[in-house]
Amino acid sequence: MNAVTVSYGRARLTVPGSVSVDAVYAPRAIAPAADPRREVERALAEPVGAPPLGELARTARRVAVIIPDPTRGLPKELMLKAVGDALRAMADENITIVVAYGRHGREDAEDLGLPGGWERRFRVVHHDAFDAESHGRLSSPDDSELWFDLDRAVLDAEFVVGLGAVRPHYFAGFTGGAKLLMPGCASIATIRRNHALRTDRRARLGIVNGNRARENQEACAALHGRYVTLAAVTTERGELIRAAYGDAVRAHRALVPLARTLGQVDIEPVDIVVAGAAHPTSINIYQITKVVAPAARFARRAAWSLFAVRARRASAISRRSTT
Predict the structure, then answer these.
(1) How far apart (Å, rounded) are the C-alpha atoms in residues 217 and 294?
(2) φ and ψ at 118, to 5 degrees?
(3) Please, what CATH class does the domain formed by 36-263 belong to?
(4) d(CA 80, CA 123)
(5) Predicted confidence band at 319 (pLDDT cuts at 50, 70, 90)?
(6) Which of 71, 80, 126, 265 has the greatest number of CB atoms lying within 10 Å of its CB?
(7) Cα Dmax for the chain
(8) C-alpha distances in angstroms, 245 versus 31, 177, 234, 274?
(9) In the chain, what is the straight-line distance between the N-terminal and C-terminal CA atoms, in Å?
(10) pLDDT tens-digit map of 61-71
């Protein structure tokens, strides 16, 4: 067997040759799109259950574009440029870029992946889940328990576009879709309500149907009523494979089968599992914990799991978070 390596931040570690390795599992190798920009333009031209983005732009005065924080690998510059072209009918001052941190810590501007000059061209809002004054309540008139506190930048916009990758997630089933809006742009109270649902037996890796945590996120998007998504499936290196634009649920589900093909493998449980965390997952200890759930699937009961990690920071949770 050739030398075995595991991800270690921006580098890789080599497993010593004296160690007996029974099997190596990694995402399937699927070729990226030959022309990534054309693939994004194709997705925008073929909306799934939503009006074309250019049509929304012609009738709106304010739009918010949500991007994931730097812990989420995504070809953001490529996707943002395509969205910017679709929104060209709007004045720059009417477009707000919202960085969806959820409860993660804020990153430096140079890590955001914005096209050159965009931080000066557009208003950029760094969502802060702990800033009560920056949120407003979205609630259902028919269900007193159905409420979400969201960043005012996404509440005040006449429509919102969420950019995100679709990949396996340890309790939401898969990332992307409505998840950019909530918990991405939600208050800490709303995030905690959603994350409490991960104890549900179907809130698991790779499960979307009947997953209460995912359903709660999509209920928020439906209640908002003006949210669309530009979603993408990428290679392990963040290269775009396929994109979909449209309704938060339908566009997301259009990409789930491909994301599942990319990330799902057949396994035989083993006694010792070694898993690595690549950048940007390795950016902090909080993100690295997300490697645990998939690694656990490989381990027999009472097995050992070893994690090779190199984090830039110990934690990304605000100092105001004490629980």
Answers:
(1) 22
(2) -70, -30
(3) alpha beta
(4) 14
(5) very low
(6) 80
(7) 65
(8) 21, 10, 15, 37
(9) 45
(10) 999 999 998 77
- Cα(108)–Cα(110) distance, integer angstroms: 6
Q: Are 68 and 74 in contact (CB under 8 A)?
A: yes
pLDDT 10s digits, 159-213: 999 999 999 999 999 999 999 999 999 999 999 999 999 999 999 999 999 999 9
User: Quick check: pTM over 0.90?
Assistant: no
pLDDT tens per residue, range 26-39: 888 899 999 999 99
CA 77 – CA 61 distance, rounded (Å): 24
From residue 207, alpha-carbon distances to 74, 171, 200, 264 in Å are 22, 8, 12, 12
Q: Are 316 and 106 in contact (CB under 8 A)?
A: no
